[in-house]
Amino acid sequence: MTTADRSADRSADALAEPVERVGRGWISALSLANGAIWVGWYGPLQILLASQAKDFAPGAGMPKETLLAWVTGAGAVVSLVANPFFGALSDRTTARRGRRTPWIVAGVAGGALSLLLLAGASGPWTMALGWCLVQLTLNAAFAAVTAAVPDRVPRLQRGSVGGWLGAAQILGVVGGTGLATAAGGIGAGYAACAVFTVVGVLPYVLRHQDLRLADEDRPPWHWRGFFAGFWLSPRRHPDLGWAWLTRFLINLSNSLVLLYLLYYLRDRVGYHDPDKGVLILTAVNGVTLLATVVVGGVRSDRVGRRKPFVVWSGVLMAVATAALSGWQTWPGTVVAAAVLGVGFGVFTSVDFALMTDVLPKALDRGKDLGVINVANALPQVAAPALAAPIVTYLGGYRVLYLAAAAIGLAGAVLVGRIRGVE
């Protein structure tokens, strides 16, 4: 076989619908890489950014809730652009290491450096800059990690692979929270998250070869066409549009729950150690999520259906969120966290598989998944804009969590509008 023939075979593999099941080693390595990225995000989001906002708020002349909302919102805006942009670049990449791996390496290296910049932040502006850089770089890596699934995993294995990625995600949330809490300070917390993020991607990068796109199969470069490709018309792709909307609404509900959790425990529940309380709730949520995330994905693969799992998981999450409004005690919060974990576990794995099932074109998997992942990032922009005035002026945490429950329930109901997936 000539070099040209081998290049054509690699490109055909990169653009073909996968049929060969992936092995446990590949799944484990990709899951670890995914979890490492979530450590880099959620150590700051759960503990470190809130602690810095509390320290910097007096000098900035604003409440800590408002400062935190502005910083996380700015980072989420960067995420909105970065995920589909780097996904599209990875679709076009013809490097020897493949389409996705170079972006995983560059994104994680940049993310680690950005976390270290956050560790040395001296005020609100450097805090905001550091967090925006974290979102920019880690989203480059995350776009490539998620695109590897439709590249390599056949449709009837995507629920279970999505389950393992979801398990790694919650372990990353728990691990990031634990590192941030146990490190002994804000700077040490950021450094610990940076180191773990780098180490966690090494097994996948070093041990597993990526699919390579041949130069002749890369589409011609046109700036206008490149940017026009980010618009996926809901009229032309209605299933993708409805799937995007349902993911956005359920993630918005979840973001509203998480954003002020530290302050909710301190100011409303009156828990004696809010930092430790967040860690306990995250662990409880993680245990119940882990109990359902893989099982839900495997079960969905076996029965060949996605929508019923997504609908009922969304309903369950809405019920648990409403409980936070009406049962504002420490035991009530623990129960709500546990039930949220059950629902979000099933949703995480099965919704991911559903999203990969409605992708329009193999050549644009990274870009299209990046557009879909906007439904994960946009709630981080919308949640602060909704939550800050509700908590401050419109009824406090009781109204906030009732609104979050209604939003999540709407997302669950709208799953029924998707026609091309059962």
From TrEMBL:
Q: Which UniProt keywords apply?
A: Membrane, Transmembrane, Transmembrane helix
* Localization (cell): Cell membrane
Top-level division of the source organism's lineage: Bacteria
What the entry lists under PROSITE patterns is as follows: MFS
Major subcellular site: membrane
Bilayer-crossing regions? 26-47, 67-89, 101-122, 128-149, 161-182, 188-206, 244-265, 277-297, 309-328, 334-359, 371-393, 399-418
The protein's topology relative to the membrane is:
Multi-pass membrane protein
Query: What residue stretches are annotated with the Major facilitator superfamily (MFS) profile domain?
Result: 239-422
List, alphabetically, the InterPro entries matched: MFS (IPR011701), MFS_dom (IPR020846), MFS_trans_sf (IPR036259)
Q: A Pfam family in this protein?
A: MFS_1
Q: Which CDD domains match?
A: MFS
Q: What is this protein called?
A: MFS transporter
